[in-house]
């Protein structure tokens, strides 16, 4: 396993353990976080705020994880399935009633000096809305 793959695996292991501090340890100080259907957030503080919001609204576990990494370790990607429960209504989205969902997703990463410098996440929002409506 390349160092990039190990960093990405640690990041997702921390996500599944609901350990935001361990996720933050995988990130560079000035990480650029590109959210599906959202604005780019820069820095660990903004990333931690996003994680707190997501943890409040959603209970998610990622499965069927496949991690890819470039030979030079500067780029990586992961494909996975999000298994979730919608626990608190998120602004502008359908009302939460504990609905469950299963959603294919993917993330792309840039890495430098053993840390993630960019996270880009994609999923089909209209599929998610259909599942929870």
Structure write-up:
This protein has 133 residues and is an alpha+beta fold. The protein has a single domain, classed as Roll (Nuclear Transport Factor 2, Chain: A), CATH 3.10.450.50. Helices cover 32% and strands 43% of the residues. The protein is built from 4 helices and 6 strands; from the N terminus they run ααββαββββα. It has helices at 3-16, 20-25, 44-57, 125-132, and strands spanning 27-34, 40-42, 58-69, 75-86, 100-112, 115-123. The chain has a 6-stranded mixed sheet with strand order 2-1-6-5-4-3. β5 and β6 form a beta hairpin. The radius of gyration is 15 Å and the shape is globular. The model has no long low-confidence stretch (mean pLDDT 96).
Q: Which architecture per CATH?
A: Roll
CA-based shape? globular
Count of separate structural domains: 1
Strand order of the largest sheet: 2-1-6-5-4-3
Return the CATH topology.
Answer: Nuclear Transport Factor 2, Chain: A
Estimate what percentage of residues fall within beta strands.
35-45%
Rg result? 15 Å
Summarize the amount of helix as a percent range: 25-40%
Unreliably modeled segments: none
Structural class estimated from helices and strands: alpha+beta
> Average pLDDT, to the nearest integer?
96
Largest sheet: 6 strands, mixed
């Amino acid at each position: 396993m390349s160092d990039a793959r190990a960093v990405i695996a640690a990041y997702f292991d921390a996500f599944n353990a609901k350990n935001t501090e361990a996720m933050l340890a995988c990130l560079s100080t000035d990480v650029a976080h590109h959210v599906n259907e959202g604005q780019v957030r820069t820095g660990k503080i903004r990333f931690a705020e996003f994680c707190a919001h997501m943890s409040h609204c959603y209970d998610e576990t990622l499965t069927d994880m496949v991690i890819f990494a470039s030979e030079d370790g500067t780029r990586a990607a992961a494909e996975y399935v999000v298994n979730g429960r919608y626990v608190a209504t998120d602004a502008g989205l359908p009302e939460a009633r504990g609905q469950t969902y299963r959603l294919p997703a993917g993330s792309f990463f840039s890495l430098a000096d053993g840390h993630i410098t960019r996270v880009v996440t994609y999923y089909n929002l209209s599929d998610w809305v259909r599942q929870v409506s």
